[in-house]
Specification:
Helix content: 25-40%
Largest sheet: 8 strands, antiparallel
Number of strands: 19
CATH topology of one domain: Uridine Diphospho-n-acetylenolpyruvylglucosamine Reductase, domain 3
Shape: globular
CATH class of one domain: Alpha Beta
Oligomer: single chain
Number of helices: 17
Bound molecules: flavin-adenine dinucleotide, D-malate, zinc ion
Structural class: alpha+beta
């Protein structure tokens, strides 16, 4: 693809802002841009005009100003672990990927204020580790934490496995620093827990998937490390029983309940198949298993006693048939590792269709029974990979092609009709078609069928006000 003289001039300007080594292009055929151009699920490969890697907020602002002046679209990118094809460029070869990964510093940990302020490109796991070293907990936890960034977590309002206690990324954020679509810097890193001085701007940028501006820094809440964190795995006979167990867990553990994840038998069988080194308890005997976590500020003995009482009550009520409580940190990690390996095991099994849905928790058993029946009637042999954050009413209601089926054909021909079937039931249950992964380009054309025209009109108004030239991640989340 030949570059225009305007594109060449812009690339020169970008090199002068961030330094030539940090502007990667296809001009040199030896440069491999796959890591920035291919989405995590390997569904779409775009082509960037350039991948630009600024080293600080001022450089981000200068890059945005230069791109805006040249009317060139920008795609903010963190770890590129998103699930909805939202962080990679389109195929035009005209978009600039703005990768934040060089901006990875912890700016300040304020123990008295219980906050940490970081660059947006900080990898989530590094942020967790920094907090732990100082005796604090940063509770956002996702299986992608080794490579996703806090900017991406904020951009998607990521959920993960601790939402039942600590909320989504939005609930953990007290302040943002943002480079606007015009290249201005908004410093909103106040760290205040109370501030009613007008519209709460940070909430516009959180969950906006890079369509309104570039998040360059964030002030996040931290918590004292709990004295004990115990993990249990329970075999449950049905989804109704899993929901009943959730009620009992709230009752017995109250704020100590920090994780409640459900896993269907087929999902667990994929972990056992693709990661045979992991020992997966109960999966052969039980249709469902639940991972529970109890965080306790008193002692491990207290946490264990609470867990034992809960599991006794659950067995008496018939909602748990068997259970194991981890005896050590290593065992606890192993139980969580099983849960976190499901998306990777699914990827190993092959291409798949994802439905990241949420429904009021009390209605989930009815939703699963109804949707399973409809789906298997219309798509005989489809293999249901159901698991996820039951404590938040969020299921990953995913589907693998029938055994031996051509996976590419399955995806090309069945994804649309299958999405339509699942989302029709989700709508009837007044749920969401994207609980935590966002919209990206994967669901951008589906959104209008599931969101009210009033809500869509308000969203378009916000986009128009903040990014009138439609240069920030255009075509993602909402069409300009
Ligand atoms: P990217 O993928 O790079 O970007 C995601 C979106 O955010 C894009 O629209 C992008 O433009 C925008 N963006 C990125 N950085 C910025 C920025 N600095 N400013 C503005 N916009 C920005 N997600 C969950 O919610 N819960 C889970 O439990 C979960 N588990 C996962 C498990 C695995 C194995 C994998 C691969 C993914 C999982 N995800 C999960 C999805 C993904 O990790 C999250 O969406 C994560 O928040 C994305 O972070 P990232 O840095 O990789 O962002
Ligand atoms: C998870 O919770 O593991 C991810 O959000 C799910 C997915 O990959 O579907
Ligand atoms: Zn999830």
């Amino acid at each position: 693809m030949k570059l225009t003289s305007e594109q060449k001039a812009l690339l020169e300007q970008l090199r002068s802002i961030v330094g030539a080594p940090y502007v990667l292009t296809h001009e040199d055929p030896a440069t491999d841009l796959t890591a920035w151009e291919l989405d995590w699920r390997g569904r779409e490969r775009g082509r960037a005009l350039a991948v630009v890697r600024p080293g600080n907020t001022q450089e981000v602002a200068a890059v945005v100003k230069a791109c805006a002046a040249a009317r060139v679209a920008m795609v903010p990118q963190g770890g590129n672990t998103g699930m909805v094809v939202g962080s990679t460029p389109d195929e035009s070869g005209t978009q600039v990927v703005l990768s934040l990964t060089r901006m990875n510093k912890v700016r300040q940990l304020d123990a008295g204020n219980l906050t940490i302020t970081v660059d947006a490109g900080c990898v989530l796991q590094n942020l967790q580790d920094e907090c732990e070293k100082a005796g604090f907990l940063f509770p956002l936890s996702l299986a992608s934490e080794g490579s996703c960034t806090i900017g991406g977590n904020l951009g998607t309002n990521a959920g993960g496995t601790q939402v039942v206690r600590y909320g989504n990324t939005r609930e953990l954020c007290l302040g943002l620093e943002v480079v606007t679509a015009q290249g201005e810097i908004w410093d909103g890193l106040l760290g205040l827990r109370k501030d009613n001085t007008g519209y709460d701007l940070r909430h516009l940028f959180i969950g906006s998937e890079g369509t309104l501006g570039v998040i360059t820094g964030a002030t996040m809440k931290i918590y004292p490390l709990p004295k004990a964190q115990l993990t249990a795995l329970a075999a449950v006979p049905s989804m109704e029983a899993a929901v009943q167990l959730l009620g009992l867990a709230h009752e017995h553990l109250s704020a100590g309940l920090t994780g409640f994840e459900v896993m269907g038998q087929f999902a667990l069988s994929l972990v056992a198949k693709h990661f045979p080194q992991q020992r997966v308890p109960f999966w052969q005997e039980s249709p469902w298993c639940v991972v529970l976590e109890n965080s306790d500020n008193e002692s491990e003995a207290h946490a264990r006693q609470q867990f034992e009482r809960l599991l006794e009550a659950a067995m008496e009520a018939g909602c748990v048939t068997d259970a194991v409580v981890a005896e050590s940190m290593a065992q606890a990690k192993a139980l969580w590792h099983i849960r976190e390996s499901i998306p990777l095991a699914q990827a190993q099994e092959g291409l798949n269709i994802k439905h990241d849905i949420s429904i009021n928790v009390s209605r989930i058993p009815a939703f699963v029974a109804e949707t399973n029946a409809l789906l298997l009637e219309k798509f005989p042999g489809a293999r249901l990979v159901t698991y996820g954050h039951l404590g938040d009413g969020n299921l990953h209601y995913n589907v693998q092609a029938p055994e031996g089926d051509d996976q590419k054909r399955f995806l090309a021909e069945e994804e649309g009709p299958m999405n339509a079937l699942v989302y029709e039931v989700v709508d009837r249950y007044r749920g969401s078609i994207s609980a935590e992964h966002g919209i990206g380009s994967l669901k951008v054309d589906k959104l209008p069928d599931h969101k009210s025209p009033v809500a869509l009109g308000l969203m378009r108004g916000i986009k128009q006000a903040l990014d009138p030239l439609n240069l920030m991640n255009p075509g993602r989340m909402i069409r300009g």
